[in-house]
TrEMBL record:
One of its GO terms (molecular function) is endonuclease activity. Residues 647-850 form the DNA/RNA non-specific endonuclease/pyrophosphatase/phosphodiesterase domain. It comes from Bacillus cereus MC67. It holds the Pfam family Endonuclease_NS. It is an enzyme of class 3 (hydrolase). Keywords: Hydrolase, Metal-binding, Protease, Serine protease, Signal. This is Serine protease. The active site is at H403, D449, S525, H709. Residues 648-850 form the ENPP1-3/EXOG-like endonuclease/phosphodiesterase domain. Residues 57-204 form the Peptidase metallopeptidase domain. Belongs to the peptidase S1B family.
Length: 871
């Protein structure tokens, strides 16, 4: 493995001395407590705490102190090189290095352990016996280049100052090819000189991710001196990191944070008495206060037993009736009211006619999962006690269980971790850590087993809490009925986010509680319980243990949202004005929620539309969208995802920003499957693009302008989705201002002719339609009114050849004076190339299938009867 010589290996303390090392680190520098600048007084008040230090902790020296450094061996030439490059850190950190030849030294250097470099991290050096090295350079000799000294010495002294490996940053996202890494790092050609690694060493030094607290919540820096060199053959996608030989700018900023020029800005050094040290105990399995969870489970069992007869009665009723029939009228009425009228399948499920869901149900579930987080519960010195689940119920407030966050102190030291989930490749996403701010608001109750706590709105790495949204809470009762199903999104056992989806029948609803069947595990405490509309109906808090076997659970219990909100409302008078403002952001009216749901459903409906099919006429007759002249590209309206094509049912549209009208529409017409569907009269804006790019009713009232369908209403109305297509044509994106005489006479006659021929001969037809935009078009009510409209009709003729014909119609003499319309209008069949010249669109090969393509006249010919059309 000679090509990998020069890689530092982590040097960690034996387990048996980690306890004393923790105390030494905090005694040296109280900032090594990542959450709290403790004093000996408040630390001793903690009493006997149990959980161990999990993973690593901060180990920085006190700023301004002098570190003594001693060489245990080595030749003077190499020692001088080490001194030279070690001093680099003192240019940016408020720390002094003093090289000594005798006596005590915090850092002791050897060159004897060949093939390896290492250093203990920061104050861990204080726990190493004084005759043993704390740092090693195993490959320096008289031929070693200066760049290698710079890279290795600065790196190892970075460890000695308390820095960890940058490639282990939790946000690094390095796409490791682990098999390739194992193969190369475990290869050992020369044990005398090569660094021969074990699989365990590779896992520990390369693939382990550190806690963000150890990185001071800094951003990942691939240029850091603390980063391993990474070869592209060890990653997927060619990711690589070169040999970093100097401090990066972020290295310099980072070290200044922990060794600032003003040492008085750091909390004074503290000392623990022997009694206080004894009171700090470390155990192997850190846990939350189990007594509280056991208490909640026992109370849940008592309630479950008390409700046995009511539960049996409900089960009996549900054998012959549906949930809505066995519920009180007011609950049933409210349950219906929170279902959007557009969600017909939900209404069918509620009345027992269907168990189907629209595919958008899953997409809405993903959105409902975003505000759910893992709560990492910690004590004052950063020890992980356990995990729970919580979720945002307003832009800044988090809801979880009381037995997860019992008090303000516990909330102060804990973290809310968002985005802890697996992606499509089963790889963990980047965790976003947020601190809690209980000083701003903390409301808790052990009986209802909830805690409501304020959050910091920005994480240390700059992520905004608003990115995750929140789950609004409804105070009304009736959000779920007995016999319905619920879903739970959770962090079981502190693992990545997972879901229990619907296989969870509601058994009972009473007082402040809901009982339901579901699959939950420890760590699920504090999870949201949802109905089918992804509205939160309860806060999960306890399992109902089997009386005959405490290791099994026969049901689960949630606290009703309405009860939690009532408790918070009762506390309202006792809150400060600022706290009242926070509480006011929790509840949402039913009308707001339904309107939001309605908007989301409309958005999802559009997103599910596949639009125009370019292969509609057959595999050998692909008709793509036209291309735009390059100067028009900036004027195209784009959706949030960057797409310029608005897809509807069987047709698509591309819009112009300046004109607020469609550049063109394109529709598939299936003459063999046309359906008769009643006309809609309600026109709608398309929510996928800004309304400012769409002309609404303000353009069409009190004048002779019609909202002319560019895609004619009946054209896409075919097949199983005919009704959806019919509704889709009534979007303002599909409307263009056309004088009523144009819209209702010749142009309509041409459309009729195309449609009837498609229907009579079972033809499939593709039709492009749009306006001609001219700079001198009449301006009316702030909108330039197109004077001409065009169509390009594409069919496959009986002889198997493609036909593309183009038509142009003018309404110029109709719109010269919209208040006093007059004059005649004409419709022309023109060459496709004529439309291309007028619009800036490029139809590609279609022009070669135009019967007028080789006719010299560019004016086309007038269409007075349908026999005049030349296919």
């Amino acid at each position: 493995m000679s090509k990998f010589i020069g890689i530092c290996i982590d040097k960690t303390l034996p387990d048996e001395i980690k306890e004393s090392a923790t105390i030494k680190a905090i005694e040296e520098n109280s900032a090594n407590n990542p959450f709290y600048a403790v004093s000996s007084t408040n630390f001793s008040n903690q009493g006997s705490v149990s959980p161990e230090i999990v993973g690593e902790r901060l180990k920085f020296w006190k700023p301004g102190r002098t570190l003594r450094i001693k060489f245990l061996d080595g030749i003077p030439e190499i020692q001088e090189k080490v001194k030279k490059y070690a001093m680099t850190w003192t240019n940016y950190a408020n720390i002094k290095f003093k090289f000594v030849q005798s006596g005590d030294a915090e850092i002791r250097i050897t060159f004897e352990i060949k093939g390896r470099a290492f250093s203990y991290v920061g104050t861990d050096c204080l726990s190493i016996p004084p005759d043993e090295p704390t740092m090693n350079f195993g490959w320096f000799d008289s031929d070693t280049p200066d760049e290698e000294y710079s890279r290795t010495v600065i790196h190892e002294f970075g460890h000695a100052l308390g820095l960890h490996h940058e490639h282990m940053h939790p946000e690094g996202g390095i796409p490791w090819n682990k098999e390739a890494v194992y193969r190369d790092y475990m290869r050992c050609e020369n044990p005398e000189t090569d660094s021969c690694w074990t699989k365990e060493e590779i896992d520990s030094n390369l693939f382990t991710k550190l806690d963000r607290t150890l990185m001071n919540y800094s951003v990942y820096d691939k240029d850091s001196i603390m980063h391993y060199r990474i070869l592209k053959e060890h990653t997927f996608g060619g990711y690589e990191v070169g040999l970093n030989t100097h401090l990066s700018e972020l290295d310099k900023q980072f070290i200044k944070k922990f060794y600032p020029p003003n040492p008085e800005s750091i909390t004074e050094k503290i000392s623990f008495s022997q009694t206080e040290k004894t009171n700090i105990s470390f155990v192997k399995n850190p846990k939350l206060n189990e007594n509280l969870q056991i208490l909640q489970n026992r109370r849940a069992l008592e309630r479950y037993i008390e409700r046995s007869s009511e539960r049996k009665h409900t089960a009996s009723e549900l054998q012959n009736k549906i949930p809505i029939e066995i519920s009180k009228p007011e609950r049933s009425a409210f349950r219906k009211s929170i279902i959007s009228p557009r969600d017909g399948l939900a209404l069918e499920r509620l009345i027992g006619e269907s168990d189907l869901f629209p595919i958008s149900y899953l997409e809405r579930g993903l959105k409902a999962a975003n505000p759910v987080c893992r709560i990492e519960v910690r004590d004052r010195i950063g020890r992980v006690l356990g995990y729970g689940t919580g979720f945002l119920v307003s832009p800044t407030l988090l809801l979880t269980n009381n037995h997860v966050l019992e008090n303000e102190d516990m909330a102060l030291f804990s973290l809310a971790q968002f985005n802890y989930e697996l992606d499509l490749n089963n790889t963990e996403r980047e965790i976003k850590n947020f601190r809690l701010n209980p000083k701003r608001l903390f409301i808790t109750d052990q009986t209802l087993d909830f805690s409501l706590v304020a959050m910091e709105e920005v994480s240390a790495n700059g992520t905004h809490l608003s990115e995750f949204g929140f789950l609004p809470l409804l105070p009304q009762k009736g959000k779920i009925l007995k016999g319905e199903h619920v879903s739970i999104i959770q962090h079981p056992d502190g693992a990545p986010k997972s879901i229990v989806l619907r296989e969870n029948k509601v058994l009972d609803i009473f007082d402040d509680y809901i009982h339901y069947e579901t699959d939950t595990k420890p760590g699920t405490s504090g999870s949201p319980v949802y109905n089918d509309q992804w509205i939160v109906v309860a806060l999960h808090h306890a399992g109902v243990p089997d009386p005959n076997n405490n290791n099994n659970f026969i049901a689960n219990e949630g606290i009703r949202v309405s009860s939690i909100l009532q408790f918070v409302t009762n506390q309202y008078p006792n809150l400060s004005d600022n706290q009242k403002m926070l509480i006011d952001t929790i509840s949402q009216s039913v009308e707001d929620l339904v309107n939001k749901t309605e908007k989301n459903l409309i958005q999802e409906w559009h997103n599910a539309s596949t639009g125009y099919d370019s292969n509609f006429l057959g595999e050998n007759y692909k008709i793509p969208h036209p291309k735009f002249r390059i100067d028009l590209e900036e004027d195209i309206v784009r959706q949030e995802n960057g797409d310029k094509i608005l897809n509807y049912t069987h047709f698509s549209i591309v819009m112009s920003k300046k004109r607020r009208l469609a550049y063109y529409t394109v529709v598939n017409i299936d003459g063999d499957n046309l359906k008769n569907v009643g006309r809609e009269n309600d026109w709608n804006f398309d929510p996928r693009i800004d309304k400012k790019y769409q002309c609404g009713d303000e353009l069409y009232v009190d004048n002779d302008l019609d909202r002319g369908h560019l895609v004619r209403r009946r054209d896409p109305v075919w097949g199983n989705s005919a009704e959806e297509a019919n509704k889709d044509t009534f979007h303002f994106t599909n409307a263009s201002p056309q004088h009523k005489r144009l819209n209702q006479q010749t142009w309509l006659g041409l459309e009729d002719y195309i449609l009837k021929n498609a229907e009579n001969f079972n033809l499939k037809v593709t039709v492009f339609t749009g306006p001609v935009f001219r700079s001198d078009d009449l301006i009316y009510r702030g909108v330039q009114i197109p004077a001409e409209f065009w169509k390009v009709v594409v069919i496959v003729k009986q002889d198997g050849n493609l036909s593309a014909t183009a038509y142009l119609q003018s309404q110029k003499n109709l719109i010269d004076n919209l208040e006093f319309a007059y004059g005649e209008y004409k419709t022309y069949q023109v060459a496709v190339s004529k439309i291309e010249n007028l619009t800036g669109l490029d139809f590609g090969e279609l022009r070669n299938h135009d019967p007028l393509n080789h006719i010299e006249s560019t004016n086309g010919h007038i269409i007075e009867t349908y026999e005049d059309i030349n296919f």
